[in-house]
Fold this sequence. Notes:
The chain is of the alpha/beta class.
Amino acid sequence: MKNKIAFISEHASPLAILGGVDSGGQNVYVAELAKHLVKKGYEIDIFTRWENHKESMIINWEPGIRVIHMEAGPKQVIPKEELMDYMHDFTQSMLAFIKRYDLQYDLVHANFWMSGMVACQLKIMENIPFVITFHALGSVRKLYQKEVDKFPEIRTTIETEIVKYADQIIAECPQDRLDLINYYQAPDNKITIIPCGFSKTEFYPVNKNYARKLLNLDLEENIILQLGRMVPRKGIDNVISALARIDQKTTPTRLVVVGGDSNPYPNSSPELKRLELLANQEEVDLLVDFVGRKDRELLKYYYSAADIFITTPWYEPFGITPLEAMACGTPVIGSNVGGVKYTVADGQTGFLVPAKDPDTLAQRIVQLLSDRPLMFNMGAEAIKRVNAEFTWTHVSNKVSDLYQLMMQPSQKHTMLRNSVHAA
């Protein structure tokens, strides 16, 4: 009999178009992990919030995977910062669904803190154990974003309670584990480090000239790439400022920015408008191409067309884009934070630099663009590293091992005892 797992991902549906403000790594994580766990014999139901009234409640997405939309607030897109008040409705909808279809889940895998709220209630009311991947922690976000953070103040208090109730916690990198311990007093024996992954069928090296021709990019230019969500913490402004510090006479360089809305115009996004203005102020507007959000099947061509992939967020719980870039054989320059410093091997698959330091970033860009053998070697090492440690097959094997441990009768007894003690 197959083990049946309930994923909860309240704001990040696997069906969402990636690249928007609230669509990114978590959507990929939920989708890819579910797909790979099904190959190992699990059945997965993914519960997410009903955002589009035109969609069915139940979508048979892939063999063995259903996406189930829960009624929680109006059926429209709502920023995740404003969703907490709808989590009670989400919980009630999920409980009603479970009872209506007489479902028996072996465990719940919650994604993000609000999904953890739902998982806590399911554990209390239905005695279903749960594991959580937080994807981001409120205390860390507040530390870096301060007043810009629009999540409710109570978030960190709720996360602390979730840590107490959770049977297991997946930390996506060593920094994530330390943050859970230092900010939330998470017991070390509850935490397992399991990274995110990349899809080998989606991301692999493509001939650079072929990729550039396909994307109408100049075959001779030095091209640096930034790809991801168009939000301030991703540090795209830092890359633009670094570009302005590069001597274009000795190292002519173009920056291609992929992400944001499908409409790559300033009026479509406040962040894009801010970045356009910065590029003008730095006098590099003619060297920066904002190409908007691209379909996922095109991303490998952008990664492969670039000489260097750059990601310099202020903080990053994990970050999947460095893995995707390395899988395509492109060296990565990333900020020395969170998951980036875990995935990028400094001096081997690229460089780590301080966040918000355009001078150092510019120096590393010039160093790589001026040393083609080094760039080639780093690209080759990048391919080796990600295929050895960060495939979704590797990740799902570790997650499955954790699930099996949780579902052992002796472990279930221990978890039940701990939940009573926490209550």
